[in-house]
TrEMBL record:
Residues passing through the membrane, by range: none
Name of the protein described by the UniProt record: DUF4440 domain-containing protein
Domain SnoaL-like, first and last residues per copy: 19-134
Signal peptide stretch: none
InterPro entries: NTF2-like_dom_sf, SnoaL-like
Species of provenance: Acinetobacter chinensis
């Protein structure tokens, strides 16, 4: 996994620590912890939906809970962090999949952007965007392979 940082190194390292907390909370499906890492007015643009506000975000995770099982991991590739003292964003390729699955598995890679703002001295997720490329001729998702 490569990480590239542009801007304030200390802020970028703090954001990278937050993303580790974020990923760990997802792997344990600790929805309360996920929500604690978000701003109250967090927004999400996902492959299949969009929402606004921490309550809507929490409800989405509650709906996703049955699809997440033990032994999952958040995989990230080509992480790039752009950071200033109070605002940062991280972009990468990511997916959530079982730990024991080999690299050539079924879950597709997505393009992910997480925007962070330092609020009351703590980095919070203020926006998340998840997408997949689409072939305009076929109108179907294009699988990303690494």
């Amino acid at each position: 996994m490569t990480v590239e940082i542009t801007g304030d190194e200390q802020s970028a390292q703090e954001v990278l620590f937050k993303i580790k907390q974020w990923d760990h909370a997802i792997c344990r499906m600790n929805i309360e912890e996920i929500i604690q890492l978000c701003a109250k007015d967090v927004t999400l643009f996902d492959v299949g939906s969009q929402l606004e506000g921490v309550m809507a975000y929490q409800e989405m995770w509650e709906r996703y809970r049955p699809y997440f099982h033990d032994n999952i991991r958040v995989y990230r590739r080509e992480i790039k962090v752009y950071a200033q003292p109070n605002l940062a964003f991280l972009r990468c390729y990511s997916k959530v999949d079982k730990i024991e699955i080999e690299q050539d598995n079924q879950v597709p890679w997505c393009r992910t952007t997480l925007c962070f703002e330092k609020l009351d001295g703590k980095w919070k997720v203020v926006h998340q965007h998840i997408s997949m490329p689409v072939d305009f001729h076929t109108q179907k998702a294009v699988m990303l392979h690494f």
